[in-house]
């Protein structure tokens, strides 16, 4: 038996490849499916099944493409409804893959079709469970995404409690839990950075599996402090229930080089967004006027989904040489399929063509603190998340969270110069770029709050609240 976890840090998402005796299965595949096909070919296996734990909200799955290319059967749990052919499995239904089996356990709560898959080896011993968004390492799935007129968040939380107690906790302590997500995902509140664990250890350390937790207390716990989901989540759920553009078509269109003159014409068209995916330092030094920065070397896909409000937005890219296809792929992972091409020759070709360049002034953390001390910096902003801010921040620096940048900008003044910081210097450049594209003036603090904490603060004060969870 072969069991491999493919973990995508940008999405904090785990997908799984399992094979035995010439047959294979994939659980929760990513949008780009060729790696699974290549892996099966490497060992001469046939992909027999594609299992979905639920209709994902945070990324678009490649299950339909993978089924089309391999002939594999898509399996989804009870209550599922789609526009494509699939096998609707029942609770406790088993599927053979070579000499091993996967048994579906229907575990509603995160969504009503949510299911886990229990893996038994060649001897029939339970080895692992693939829990999707039902059970994470250190947390459970949020119960607010599948709310309907007749199904409240509290109702879903109650279902989740029952699912965990009836179908997960009775399993052997030594089986390995493989969830769909880890730390950084918006599908839970407090997930661990670990991507697997024994069920026994989770019973000891995961608050949601505390045997003394009453159903009422569980419902209160999991429904308290849930941040609003990113706006693209409902669209991704809808896409996962339907047939979407082939990833091959998306890559072919998006990976098209565009010369500077043609790129300029598109950039001047209000229907197109210029998305610059280089490093923060490259962007602040020089970029195309009106472009947005969301760098590939960060939480790229989640921030794209949170900030580009129209999932059908036409996007043209400024990308590092050799990473153009990567950018198109990672956009498609969260349903942004309308990439139209990239600037051939990068920013150098833009400058060679004689077109104007914008920049954002970078200042050091010490210059930021000194500027606050002297009064030279009059409009400082902290764009981290509320939990980060409440835990520790520079006294007197207000919070304007990047998640809410579009509404936050309505409260700012285009005649003033703002200086923004985040935790490490990535999110602050995103904030500044979006603000600058709308006519605001911004400076960026290099290294963010991490660097600020290392400065000579003099009369400035860091406010900390130890009881606040991040």
Please provide a written account of the structure.
The longest helix is centred in the middle third of the chain and has 16 residues, at 153-168. It contains 17 helices and 23 strands. The protein has helices spanning 34-42, 63-70, 153-168, 199-205, 215-223, 233-240, 247-254, 260-267, 280-285, 300-307, 324-333, 346-352, 365-374, 386-391, 405-408, 427-437, 448-452, and strands at residues 2-8, 13-20, 23-27, 46-51, 73-76, 87-88, 94-97, 100-106, 115-120, 126-132, 176-179, 197-198, 257-258, 272-276, 292-293, 314-318, 339-343, 361-363, 380-382, 392-394, 417-421, 441-445, 462-464. The strands form 5 sheets. It has a 6-stranded mixed beta sheet, covered by helices on one side. The chain has 3 domains: 2-235, Ribonuclease Z/Hydroxyacylglutathione hydrolase-like (Metallo-beta-lactamase, Chain A); 245-352, 3-Layer(aba) Sandwich (Oxidized Rhodanese, domain 1); 362-464, Oxidized Rhodanese, domain 1 (3-Layer(aba) Sandwich), CATH 3.40.250.10. Helix 3 (153-168) packs across helix 5 (215-223) and helix 7 (247-254) crosses helix 11 (324-333). It is α/β, with parallel strands linked by helices. It is 30% helix and 22% strand. Helix 2 links the parallel strand 4 (46-51) and strand 5 (73-76). The chain is globular and about 70 Å long.
